[in-house]
Amino acid sequence: MLDYRLVQALDAVLTQGGFEKAAQSLYLTQSAVSRRIKQLEAQLGQMVLQRTTPPKATLAGQRLLHHYQQVRQMEAALGLSSADEKQSIRLAMNADSLATWVTEALLLPDHPGVRFDLVVEDQSVGLNRMKQGDVMACICASPEAVNGGAVVALGALRYRAVASPAFIRRYQLDSASPAQLASLPCLVFNEDDQLQHLYLRQYCGELPQHIHYCPSSEGFLKACLAGLGYGLLPELQMQQEFAEGRLVDLSPQLYLDVPLYWHHWQTESPLLQQLREQVQQVATKTLRHL
């Protein structure tokens, strides 16, 4: 049977950023915390902690902490733990949701002490985090629930192909067709990002031939503004740039709607239920209806 005192030590080391501060928070000696971690690893037969500065959880450690946080939330709901005890929620979501709409939903007035651990993954692969048991909930593009999980449709982010006026002048574009764009420099978030590929394939059957990888939502927008390439950006992210003429829609009649879904475990704590309901409320007023 799992000894949660050992898992508590792991949580403290990661939360406090080291063994010394973890020992202080648990009112233990540093050697006692170290022994608990070693005992936990002996019981599991694998490492739970990378001894880096600061320490990092292994995949097994992450799964264990996810389970530990669920247990703590259920205990809090049953009145078995202190109301002042801080709870953590580990979420996976796509970078564009984080950059545009979802942060409003993370404000939980009834739980001011909750800590969020946000994991950024492309909307096409974020569900893998749920399958691995690494996160408590996930926003991604898949409508298929994982085993033991449930899924809620949130809405869609609408993307448009945009570029700066300097980019348009450089390549002598007035109203660019998707076929023209296929050969021009385009921005792609990372190797998992297939939005530009989907857009071109949908409207002209082509694939992008000249790609710049830019794994940052803010950096992606700045690269577009600088004229490094064109890119698929969510309408929500560039309203001001459109209004000021710093970005131009290359094909105003064309767009790409990406559906988003909230995935959660069926054994949902009251805290996660409140978070889900709040995410749904914000999504309803912000995203496109599916």
Question: What does this entry look like structurally?
Answer:
The chain has 290 residues and is of the alpha/beta class. Among the domains are: 1-57, Orthogonal Bundle (Arc Repressor Mutant, subunit A), CATH 1.10.10.10; 156-258, D-Maltodextrin-Binding Protein, domain 2 (3-Layer(aba) Sandwich), CATH 3.40.190. Helix content is 41%, strand content 20%. It has helices at 4-16, 19-26, 30-44, 59-77, 95-100, 127-131, 165-170, 178-181, 195-204, 217-226, 239-243, 270-286; strands at 49-50, 56-57, 88-93, 115-120, 137-140, 149-163, 185-188, 210-213, 231-234, 248-249, 256-265. The strands form three sheets. Strands 3, 4, 5, 6, 9, 10 and 11 form a seven-stranded mixed β-sheet that branches. The protein has a two-stranded antiparallel sheet with strand order 1-2. Strands 7-8 form a two-stranded parallel ribbon. α9 (195-204) links the parallel β7 (185-188) and β8. α2 packs across α3. Residues 2-58 form the HTH lysR-type domain. Belongs to the LysR transcriptional regulatory family. InterPro entries: ArgP, LTTR, LysR_HTH_N, LysR_subst-bd, WH-like_DNA-bd_sf, WH_DNA-bd_sf.
Question: Features of this protein?
Answer:
12 helices, 7-stranded mixed sheet, 290 residues, D-Maltodextrin-Binding Protein, domain 2, alpha/beta
Structural class: alpha/beta
Q: For this entry, what is the oligomeric state of its chains?
A: single chain
What do we call the CATH homologous superfamily of the domain at 156-258?
Periplasmic binding protein-like II
β-strand amount: 15-25%
